[in-house]
Design goal:
Elements: H1 2-26, H2 31-48, H3 54-71, H4 77-104, H5 108-118, H6 122-140, H7 143-149, H8 158-174, H9 183-192, H10 194-219, H11 225-233, H12 236-255, H13 260-278, H14 283-295, H15 298-316, H16 319-322, H17 334-350, H18 355-366, H19 375-392, H20 397-406, H21 410-414, H22 417-440
Helix pairs in contact: 1-2, 1-4, 2-4, 3-15, 4-13, 4-14, 4-15, 6-7, 6-8, 6-10, 6-11, 7-8, 8-19, 8-20, 9-10, 9-18, 9-19, 10-19, 12-13, 15-18, 17-18, 17-19, 17-22, 18-19, 19-22
């Protein structure tokens, strides 16, 4: 019976995934099919509720209370179905990233990169793993940890495992500041608009460069530019593939006037099909890994979908006004918005509040004239908060996955060096953006 339910859940997700792509291409012409896919998502949510972890149920409960307060009796069938159609794209993103992870694991260039990282000396491993985690994380997110942990020497002691896990985690989560392959980018894009989201990516590249350079200086026992050069050399086998993926997404978005989220969901399956033609022997393994991955995405998928639904409700109702969180135009100063957003997201994560909740609230308050801030900078502060929050929370999927693969306790990973690093990243990142905002806005 359990196998039947699991298969049904995967089929429902696959239907929603396919429909989301059709919705991107044909828009309102497939509204009937989109409504049916929204109902399929509802059935999926009901089927997986008994399987969710307790911390996921707690987050969902908090989201449900927030949604109830925002609705204040305004729920209608039109709002329910339009909200359901809205979250289809996020369901598709999770499925697309699952497919991307499965494909990356079979690529020869990825295996060569693993071999290169395994040959780094202990003194250079922290910088190498953080940079590698950053590059891989920008494309396959949490799939990064499976690849990097496999490159760790088998005889590594607990101390080296912990240092390696911290470095990989720092690198992966902070790639959220520029990568369109994160849910964080999709969340922010919905509040600030596509044009400002792409501009925020440019700020994010500068943020990522500075953060990586500073961390390499503080966490490498033998810091030098030679250390960085050796670390970057490990990534040579995958460099062009990363460039091709990012260029393809950007070009597709510009040519067809798509959001970053829509471009990712549309382009990545096409690139995977290209891999099928190049390595047909891997098709079976990729399909199986994707199917298994979809069966294990329940917690994240429901949390993200509910958070996005609440964001949709916040934008399309007057719930925030009724709660007194939104008032006259520019009621909040820009510096407050840019510093409070990442710091609140980070601190909330430490006590178990997922960034998807805190970011939805903060963006709903400060966007669309809620603060005297440039939208691209608000987007970047949100992305910094996302990276800092997922670095320092024991409830973060990134922390849990990384800790499991490196065989250390999640509390030791989240509440150690990375806790201080995450706070400084949020605080200093927000402060720097505030200075930029004063100059350009």
């Amino acid at each position: 019976m359990n196998n039947v339910i699991t298969t049904l859940r995967v089929c429902l997700l696959a239907f929603a995934w396919f429909t989301a792509i059709l919705q991107i291409i044909f828009g309102a012409d497939v509204i009937g099919l989109s409504n049916l896919a929204a109902l399929a998502c509802g059935v999926f949510f009901i089927l997986v509720l008994p399987t969710l972890k307790w911390d996921s149920l707690l987050i969902i409960s908090m989201l449900a209370v927030l949604g109830w307060l925002l609705l204040d009796g305004e729920l209608s069938m039109d709002l329910a179905f339009s909200g359901g159609r809205f979250i289809l794209i996020f369901v598709a993103l999770i499925a697309t990233m699952t497919l991307s992870k499965a494909t990356a694991a079979t690529m020869p260039s990825v295996r060569r990169t693993q071999d290169n990282l395994a040959q780094l000396s202990p003194e250079n491993s922290s910088a190498g793993l953080q940079i590698a985690g950053h590059v891989f994380g920008g494309i396959i997110n949490t799939g990064t940890f499976a690849i990097l942990s496999a490159a760790l020497p088998k005889d590594s002691d607990n101390h080296r495992r912990k240092l390696a896990a911290e470095a990989a985690l720092r690198g992966m989560v902070t790639s959220a500041v520029w990568s369109p392959f994160f849910v964080a980018f999709a969340v922010g894009e919905r509040f600030v608009g596509t044009a400002h989201a792409w501009l925020a990516m440019a700020f994010g590249l500068a943020t990522a460069f500075l953060f990586t350079l500073i961390c390499t200086f503080f966490f490498s026992a033998e810091f030098s530019f030679r250390t960085i050069q050796k670390s970057l050399a490990c990534l040579r086998p995958i460099a062009w593939r990363v460039v091709i993926v990012l260029t393809s997404v950007l070009a597709f978005a510009l040519i067809f006037n798509l959001t970053a989220l829509s471009a990712v969901v549309t382009v990545m399956p096409l690139l995977v099909i290209v891999q099928f033609f190049r390595y047909p022997q891997n098709i079976r393994a990729i399909v199986k890994s994707t199917r298994d991955g979809l069966a294990l995405t329940s917690d994240d998928l429901i949390i993200i979908s509910m958070a996005m639904l609440i964001g949709y409700v916040a934008i399309n109702t007057n719930g925030l006004e009724q709660l007194g969180l939104v008032g006259p135009h520019s009621m909040y100063p820009g510096w407050l918005a840019l510093i409070a957003t990442p710091v609140v997201m980070m601190l909330a994560s430490v006590v178990g509040i997922h960034p998807v909740i805190s970011s939805t609230v903060m963006l709903a308050i400060f966007s669309n004239g809620g603060a005297a801030v440039h939208p691209a900078l608000l987007m970047q502060s949100h992305l910094i908060g996302w990276g800092a929050g997922t670095m320092s929370s024991v409830a973060s999927l990134s922390v849990i996955t990384c800790a499991r693969l490196y065989q250390i306790r999640s509390t030791k990973l989240a509440l150690s060096h990375n806790l201080i690093t995450a706070f400084l990243f949020a605080l200093m990142g927000g402060a720097a953006l505030s200075l930029i905002n004063m100059l350009i806005y």
